[in-house]
Amino acid sequence: ILRSAERRSQHVRNIVEEVLAHDYDGIDIDYEAIDSSLRDEFSALIAELGKSLHAQGKLLTVAVHAKDCDFCGLGGFQDWAALGQSIDRLRIMTYDYHWRGSTRPGPVAPIYWVREVADYAKTVVDPAKVVIGVPFYGYNWPVSGGTATAQTWDMINDLRQTYSLDVNLKESDENGPVQENWMTYSTRQDGRREVWFATSRGLEAKLGLVQQMDLAGIAIWRLGGEDPQNWDVIRGRLVQDPFESQRMLNQVLPDH
After folding, report:
1. Is the entire prediction scored with pTM above 0.90?
2. pLDDT tens digits, residue range 161-179?
3. In a designed cystine with 136, which of 100, 169, 226, 254 is the match (CB 3.0 to 4.6 A)?
4. Are the beta carbons of 59 and 53 closer than 8 angstroms?
5. How wide is the angle at C-alpha 104 spanned by C-alphas 101 and 106, nearest 5°?
């Protein structure tokens, strides 16, 4: 699709028709792991889609791979500076710093890394468009090596209760603040396991970062099975934040 201008335009028309048919507010584009040689073509697709959606009064958000430089990691095909001109929100997937296939266990979204990604984002995109992704899940690794299993907070909490596990907080390491929890346990069948996950304390640290950097907000992956205290933190930090409320009002107030 991306290599052909005609097929890109048809793809845009299909998306806009879908949005209008269901009267959606807009759409979020989450296209991943595209070759960096298609960078300009991806930007052209998003520019055309943004123009078409905005003409209908609809919104466009784009989920992007986390990175702290232009061609870093999986996100080389995503030109944030170009995308920022066409979209309403840039939703950065700031999770999986340690992921399912990592060679060793570790934090899923340490604060120091989230800040590095956000610092870069602010240099190329309007901060009012930058949304930080927060994980409501964790990973369970075999310590002997192998692929981790993704687990919700509910699943991790069941493990904690079943095996009467102590939960440890990693506040920081040699790179900076982390604010994630970890625990270890053993079973006869699986051997030694190590689990890393964020709780409401880690979420509060990320919300503080969003507010300190004056970013647009957060995006959650994913809903269901999360720490119920997360919602108390969100209500207290964002919903009841007078500065956040004022910024939202400023977007609709006439100039004065």
Report:
1. yes
2. 999 999 999 999 999 999 9
3. 226
4. yes
5. 100
